[in-house]
Write a structure and sequence with these properties.
Blueprint (H helix, E strand, L loop, with lengths): L1 E7 L6 E6 L5 E6 L3 E6 L4 E8 L4 E7 L2 E6 L3 E6 L4 E7 L5 E7 L4 E6 L3 E6 L5 E6 L5 E6 L5 E6 L4 E5 L5 E5 L6 E6 L5 E6 L3 E6 L4 E7 L5 E6 L5 E6 L4 E5 L5 E5 L1 H4 L7 E6 L5 E6 L4 E6 L1
Antiparallel strand pairs: 1-28, 2-3, 3-4, 4-5, 6-7, 7-8, 8-9, 10-11, 11-12, 12-13, 14-15, 15-16, 16-17, 18-19, 19-20, 20-21, 22-23, 23-24, 24-25, 26-27, 27-28
Length: about 300
């Protein structure tokens, strides 16, 4: 199903963030280093350091030729890929930013992180539109429903909070995880929401009522990311336990474990982020071992 084809070295410190551009061969990585790195998937090679950063980067998000960079300082930067420069840097939060998402239908940008607030920004001028307190501690992750009517926030207080996207009103709290929620993803057709946690479990919440359908003991330690394949009925998870797992998106059967222990090649430390290439041919992973690994769908 998935096989390792390339390891890309170069980072000197743990890597926390990945994003790809509309040009499928280009993707970006960042973490505790001093800059954002651009890579070519076509060449399987380093391209260049794209921009310097003032503090560690915990998230990257791409939207319409712009790369959004969320920093430990609480600031976010916007790098314009056409102009090849940073066009704005905003001191958005008083604590680190852990996730950034765009709401295309509203032309809005959302930032959240360790201060528990969610800030809503205009994508036209990056001015703040609205801000609300989602939790009294860290909000780790954001997921938008495919139809952009609802948004889910994964919180350190073990709750998943569902909001209406139209007016950012709280719809409901989902209780189930026993430790902080660290990853969220909606099924591409909006059938369910899947959550991962420091409790190492995946939980499947049926939509529209968010009833708990299933609990899967997925990993040994924290699940840091969940990524659905762009066209096939699979999703991948990655964990602090140094493994990537490939699952059936219909019945949640485990298909493949990618790890040093199982496959003879893999990450040696926590895996913090995974993304699929747009065409679905490759999965890219990175983590605390400073390596970026490329896996190919067979």
């Amino acid at each position: 199903m998935l096989k390792h084809i390339k390891t890309l070295p170069g980072h000197q410190n743990p890597v926390y963030a990945l994003a790809h551009s509309d040009q499928d061969e280009l993707f970006f990585s960042a973490g505790n280093d001093k800059g954002i790195v651009e890579w070519s998937l076509a060449e399987m090679a380093f391209v260049k350091v794209k921009m310097p950063v003032q503090s560690s980067v915990y998230c990257l998000h791409y939207h319409k030729d712009q790369l959004f960079v969320g920093e430990r300082s609480g600031a976010f930067s916007v790098y314009d890929l056409k102009e090849q420069k940073v066009i704005v840097r905003v001191n958005a939060h008083i604590k680190p930013i852990f996730d950034i998402q765009t709401v295309k239908s509203k032309n809005e940008l959302l930032t959240t992180g360790e201060d528990g607030t969610v800030a809503v920004w205009s994508l036209n001028d990056f001015k703040e539109i609205y801000r609300f307190q989602t939790a009294y501690d860290t909000v780790r992750t954001i997921a938008l429903s495919p139809d952009e009517t609802e948004i889910a926030f994964g919180c350190k207080d073990q709750l998943i909070k569902i909001y209406n996207l139209q007016d950012y009103s709280l719809k409901q709290n989902l209780e189930g995880h026993k430790l902080p929620v660290t990853s969220l993803a909606y099924h591409p057709t909006g059938k369910y929401l899947i959550s991962g946690s420091r409790d190492a479990q995946l939980k499947i919440w049926d939509i529209p009522n968010y009833e708990l359908r299933e609990t899967v003991p997925a990993h040994m330690f924290t699940i840091y990311d969940i990524a659905f394949h762009p066209s096939l009925p699979y999703f991948a998870t990655c964990s602090q336990d140094k493994s990537i797992k490939l699952w059936d998106a219909e019945n949640f059967k485990l298909y493949k474990i990618l790890s040093l222990e199982k496959a003879g090649i893999g990450h040696t430390h926590s895996i913090n982020k995974i993304i699929w290439s747009h065409d679905g041919k490759h999965l890219i992973s990175t983590g605390d071992d400073r390596q970026i690994m490329v896996w190919e769908m067979e």
